[in-house]
Amino acid sequence: MKHIFIKGTNPSKPTFLLLHGTGGNEHDLLPIAGMIDDEASILSVRGNVSENGMPRFFKRLAEGVFDEEDLVFRTKELKEFIDQASTDYDFNPNHVIAIGYSNGANIAGSLLFHYEDALKGAMLLHPMVPIRNLDLPEMKNISVFIGAGKNDPICLPQETEELASLLQGAGATVETHWENNGHSLTRTEIEKAAEWYEKNF
Ligand code: MLT
């Protein structure tokens, strides 16, 4: 997968897996990773699917309606990519924390839903429920931050709550931060994510 890897300055710090939103690329979230922890390593990946030229991490049938077969396939592809990258770049595959926005948050959620050991934690910024009716893996050692907008027309508040309760039901510790905003990323949301990260890692 097309990506950027930046080795962190402090080997005890995690590797941030950066996952952009629809139409974005592997450069988008680099400043955000720096705001959260500028000593961590970074693996920033570009989605392998193109929707009319816009990179995404999996196909969708319509706005908010996911192609589940592709989602499962792409989630496995991303998991294998992370494992291979951990060998190539010599980082600990058990110390990876995702930072995903929108479509990137959805594939990060899908990694959590499908693989017990893919992520140690995740900052899911404007996520949806990636897939329903799955038996979720054990998540008792996983911490998740959710950034959500009360007026987000794409990731509706009730879906944010559903996602939080699915993750908690599987054992994850979840903190949800609400903004009086829509789907866009805000500085205060990133500051809250940084505080959550400081507390948990
Ligand atoms: C998705 O397709 O993953 C969500 O609708 C968010 C987005 O617009 O990318």
Q: What would you note in describing this structure?
A:
This protein is an alpha/beta fold and 201 residues long. The protein has a single domain (8-200), classed as Alpha/Beta hydrolase fold, catalytic domain (Rossmann fold, 3-Layer(aba) Sandwich), CATH 3.40.50. The chain has helices at 30-36, 68-88, 103-114, 157-169, 187-200; strands spanning 3-6, 15-19, 41-45, 49-51, 54-56, 60-62, 65-66, 96-101, 121-125, 143-149, 173-179. The strands form 3 sheets. It has a 7-stranded mixed β-sheet with strand order 1-3-2-8-9-10-11, sandwiched between helices. Strand 10 (143-149), helix 4 and strand 11 (173-179) form a beta-alpha-beta unit. Helix 2 packs across helix 3. The chain is globular. It binds D-malate. The site of D-malate (MLT) has 10 residues, from helix 3.
Outline of the structure:
This protein is α/β, with parallel strands linked by helices and 201 residues long.
Keywords summarizing the entry:
33% helix; AB_hydrolase_fold; seven-stranded mixed β-sheet; LYPA1-2/EST-like; two-stranded antiparallel sheet; hydrolase activity; Rossmann fold; single chain
Question: Which SSEs are present, and which pair or pack?
Answer:
Layout: E1 3-6, E2 15-19, H1 30-36, E3 41-45, E4 49-51, E5 54-56, E6 60-62, E7 65-66, H2 68-88, E8 96-101, H3 103-114, E9 121-125, E10 143-149, H4 157-169, E11 173-179, H5 187-200
Parallel strand pairs: 2-3, 2-8, 8-9, 9-10, 10-11
Antiparallel strand pairs: 1-3, 4-5, 6-7
Helix pairs in contact: 2-3
Bound molecules: D-malate.
